[in-house]
């Protein structure tokens, strides 16, 4: 190597093999540079204590607080610019979800949504989830082999969030396509054509949801969208654009992440047959087992914060405006927190629920209880129903860095 050749960055999620197994790269970060300043300008925290503290800090999630030349700021600005000027009374809902807002806006939005997205409303869905899972398992049993993602992992959470929101069946097919594009906004986007495609999907999805809101105002039902429209706190209600942003967030986050939980979790069980046997023989392990699956291969690998004031961590100071990637998946494998077997799946692991797969602090995932319910029912009933469950072919990863999961997981059940 000559002096003119650039050094390989310590953290490169685009390197070959990363998507199939990012954990060696995270281990390298934890060992060599746990508070890593990437050549592209952002920072990466990879240790459990550092990630957990950042998630609970008062720092920002709003890209507008990042430095003007940061990668995240430039990508978000390009998204808004590509949308063009608003027409008529329509306002672009981009950046209005609770995921993108700081207090007091975040506090207000989350308070209104959590009034209707309650533990009781989630628990009441269990019989519906059981019926959906059993029907999917019946189809798998009849066929003998199946793609677990297409047959079980994707349809279940999609049907559940659609039912909760009261979305008519006629809209499901298009919404599936659009949400699959929208989830890419959580990834780095270097292709202008892809950015334009995602942006078009975002605006189309907003139009669909805007129409649904208008319909629900005239035809209220016993569903989450009707309840969100009516939700009020201290005389305050969600505006139409805020409603649109929260519904789109619930759709994308409400099913794409659970697809990864069920798919990645099942693959982990197949790769650890003794643990799968343990679950089959002791189904009561499923609740803690789901926590361990979330830790072992996190459905969301990374989170973000923008530093509002100089932030000291690991002997370094991240300046105001610094964009920080909190590596959730790395924190969930940190040997200093999880012990020497942090890289192994252990369904009975003590303290597994202390993972950071759902984030932490004020932005802790509002849908965590729903994901846990769907994951627990799916893996428990599948393990008991199919004692011969085994891989049928190599799985295919979806190519995403953040919402890293499987496109296909072929299995045989007999």
Automatic annotation (TrEMBL):
SUPFAM superfamilies per the UniProt record, alphabetical: Cytochrome P450
InterPro entries: Cyt_P450 (IPR001128), Cyt_P450_B (IPR002397), Cyt_P450_CS (IPR017972), Cyt_P450_sf (IPR036396)
Alphabetical list of Gene3D superfamilies matching this protein: Cytochrome P450
PROSITE patterns: CYTOCHROME_P450
Keyword tags: Heme, Iron, Metal-binding, Monooxygenase, Oxidoreductase
Molecular-function GO terms, alphabetical: heme binding; iron ion binding; monooxygenase activity; oxidoreductase activity, acting on paired donors, with incorporation or reduction of molecular oxygen
Protein name (Swiss-Prot/TrEMBL): Cytochrome P450
Organism, scientific name: Catenulispora acidiphila (strain DSM 44928 / JCM 14897 / NBRC 102108 / NRRL B-24433 / ID139908)
């Amino acid at each position: 190597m000559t002096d003119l050749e650039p050094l390989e960055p310590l953290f490169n999620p685009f390197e070959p093999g990363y998507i199939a197994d990012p954990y060696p790269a995270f281990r390298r970060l934890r060992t060599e540079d746990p508070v890593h300043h990437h050549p592209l300008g952002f920072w990466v925290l990879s240790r459990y204590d550092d990630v957990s503290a950042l998630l609970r800090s008062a720092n920002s999630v709003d890209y507008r607080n990042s430095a003007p030349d940061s990668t995240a700021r430039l990508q978000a600005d390009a998204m808004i610019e590509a949308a063009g000027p608003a027409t008529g009374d329509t306002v672009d809902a981009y950046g209005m979800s609770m995921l993108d807002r700081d207090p007091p806006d975040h506090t207000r939005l989350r308070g209104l949504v959590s009034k209707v997205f309650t533990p009781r409303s989630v628990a009441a869905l269990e019989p519906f989830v059981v019926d959906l899972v059993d029907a999917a398992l019946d189809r798998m049993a009849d066929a003998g082999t199946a793609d677990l993602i297409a047959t079980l992992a994707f349809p279940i959470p999609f049907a559940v969030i659609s039912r909760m929101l009261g979305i008519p069946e006629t809209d499901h097919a298009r919404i599936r396509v659009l949400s699959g594009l929208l989830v890419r906004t959580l990834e780095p986007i270097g292709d202008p054509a892809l950015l334009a495609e995602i942006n078009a999907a975002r605006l189309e999805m907003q139009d669909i949801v805007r129409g649904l809101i208008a319909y629900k105002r005239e035809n209220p039902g016993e569903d989450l969208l009707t309840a969100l429209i009516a939700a009020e706190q201290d005389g305050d209600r969600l505006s139409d654009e805020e409603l649109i942003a929260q519904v789109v967030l619930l759709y994308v986050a409400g099913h794409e992440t659970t697809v990864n939980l069920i798919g990645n979790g099942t693959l982990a069980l197949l790769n650890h047959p003794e643990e799968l046997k343990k679950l089959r023989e002791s189904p009561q392990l499923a609740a803690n087992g789901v926590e361990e699956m979330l830790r072992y291969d996190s459905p969301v690998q990374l989170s973000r914060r923008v530093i509002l004031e100089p932030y000291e961590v690991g002997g370094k100071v991240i300046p105001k405006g610094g964009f920080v990637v909190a590596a959730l998946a790395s924190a969930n494998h940190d040997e200093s927190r999880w012990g020497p077997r942090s890289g192994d799946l252990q369904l009975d692991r003590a303290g597994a629920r202390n993972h950071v797969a759902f984030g932490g602090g004020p932005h802790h995932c509002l849908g965590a209880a729903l994901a846990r319910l769907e994951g627990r029912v799916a893996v428990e009933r599948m393990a008991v129903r199919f004692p011969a469950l085994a891989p049928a072919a190599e799985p295919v990863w979806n190519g995403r860095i953040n919402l890293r999961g499987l496109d296909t997981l072929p299995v045989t059940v007999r």
